[in-house]
Amino acid sequence: MADHSAEAGSITVLAGPTAVGKGTVSTFVRENYPEVSLSVSATTRAPRPGEEDGVHYHFLSHEQFDSYIEEGAFLEWATVHGLNKYGTLKHTVEAAARAGQKVLLEIDLQGARQVREALPGAHFVFLAPPSWDELVRRLVGRGTESPEEQQRRLETARLELAAESEFDQTIVNEHVETAAAELVQSMGITPRTA
């Protein structure tokens, strides 16, 4: 994707450690700020309860994902926690940006670094937890990973937290509505009041 400044300037990248609430904040933005185009990532992981294909993620087989990699169809992609692949399809981001929409990419740290290389004019937001203990509580509390997977994710989270300085802005996710309001405000959108 060529770095057209008007297009890159309409793209915001939201990243942060595992279990910080990136998906929850993004869902709140999708449901309350229809003027934001939320990029739907592709992944090889299985859907969690309540997740829908094409809404929360494009759920792909490993073979499908690898085929897209070979075609150069991703703006960014990564193998996360040594298990599954996640990626952002170029064509969906390009189309939304060309249409003048504010685009939000919710991705991991590796992906954010790749997007910075491709689109240095994008705005990069780090979503941080209120504390390490709260991050651990959120990860364990959601109950979607085995104890081994939880441990692997927490080890990754320590490294991800150390990358905060690479971002243009940090938002602490203490309350979803407040974090979402700060995020859309950083995108040039007036937050809604309750």
Q: What does this entry look like structurally?
A:
There is one protein chain. This protein is of the alpha/beta class and 194 residues long. The chain has eight helices and nine strands. Strand 5 and strand 6 form a beta hairpin. The protein has a single domain, classed as Rossmann fold (3-Layer(aba) Sandwich). The N terminus is likely disordered. It is globular, with a radius of gyration of 16 Å. The strands form two sheets. The chain has a five-stranded parallel beta sheet, with helices on both faces. The chain has a four-stranded mixed beta sheet with strand order 4-3-6-5.
Summarize the model shown.
This protein is of the alpha/beta class and 194 residues long.
Give the helices and strands, then pairings.
Blueprint (H helix, E strand, L loop, with lengths): L4 H5 L1 E5 L6 H11 L3 E3 L3 E2 L14 E2 L2 H10 L2 E7 L3 E6 H9 L3 E5 L2 H10 L4 E6 L3 H11 L4 H15 L7 E4 L3 H11 L8
Parallel strand pairs: 1-7, 1-8, 2-7, 3-4, 8-9
Antiparallel strand pairs: 3-6, 5-6
Helix pairs in contact: 2-8
